[in-house]
Specification:
This protein has about 250 residues and is mostly helical. The protein is about 60% helix and about 0% strand. It is built from twelve helices and no strands. The chain has helices spanning about 5-10, 10-15, 20-35, 45-60, 65-75, 80-100, 105-130, 140-150, 160-175, 185-190, 190-200, 205-215.
């Protein structure tokens, strides 16, 4: 079992945020070995690690390096022991939520890519677990985590910019993972966090974005009929009010 003493004795956190790439690369390699052997890590330790990982990406300054690093950070999920997977993912989202509004426009693109890679990593965890609904790393637990942080309905401390990006890439990554070809109950379960936003978000822009994602033509049941009249699919804007109160719009 890892303890606070263990994490403080490792050089990972400081070296992951080092100015020079060789030091960061070596720290990341050592971290993979370290994480693969830890079946339990306290939440505070995981947040410390993610602070270092966040600034590791923050310091990377070339597009190809940034892309490779984002993929490497997402690949950490695949080497985690099962009991550590969801806590590690939770620390990732908590870190993104905490730091998102402080990311400047010049650095935002690489963090958008990292978030996309981590949405994909969630689906890879479920695939590895055989798309089981319940139990450790099951659909209920992993999708519950998404609703807890990134797609949280009402927590105003979470930037809508982060919510919007997760919504934007959700169906893309489902398609890339081959999920749209799976049985309908699995597909529906993975769309659950978006449906919750549509029903319960107090922000009308969030509701609209989630609704648009659920109407994506790639999703089963949303395909347009061949030769159909597209004009029939156009709704009059004045008839789309949602039961009166539209909620908050940032």
């Amino acid at each position: 079992m890892a303890t606070d003493t263990d994490i403080q004795q490792t050089p990972f956190v400081k070296q992951l945020a080092a100015n020079d790439r060789p030091t960061r690369d070596a720290a990341l390699h050592s971290l993979r070995t370290y994480l693969s052997g830890r079946r339990e890590l306290p939440p505070l330790d995981l947040l410390k690690l993610w602070k270092g990982l966040f600034y590791c990406l923050w310091m990377s300054d070339r597009p190809l390096t940034q892309q490779a690093l984002a993929s490497s950070l997402a690949s950490l999920v695949s080497i985690l022991p099962s009991p550590t997977t969801v806590p590690f993912l939770r620390a990732f989202w908590q870190t993104m939520a905490r730091e998102w509004t402080g990311i400047d426009v010049l650095r935002m693109e690489k963090f958008l890519l990292l978030v996309r890679r981590y949405v994909a990593a969630h689906f890879e965890v479920l695939d590895k677990n055989g798309w089981k609904e319940e139990g450790q790393n099951g659909i209920t637990e992993v999708m519950g985590l998404m609703g807890e942080v990134a797609l949280n309905v009402g927590d105003m401390r979470i930037s809508n910019g982060l919510r919007f990006h997760v919504i934007d890439v959700w169906v893309d990554e489902m398609e890339r993972a081959g999920i749209l070809e799976l049985e309908k109950p699995v597909v529906e379960a993975l769309l659950g966090p978006l449906r919750t936003l549509v029903k319960a978000s107090p922000n009308k822009v969030v509701r609209r974005k989630a609704k648009e994602a659920l109407e994506d033509e790639r999703l089963p049941g949303n395909e347009k009929p061949v030769g159909g009249n597209e004009d029939q699919d156009v709704e009059v804007e004045g008839n789309t009010n949602e039961d009166g109160w539209e909620g908050i719009e940032d």
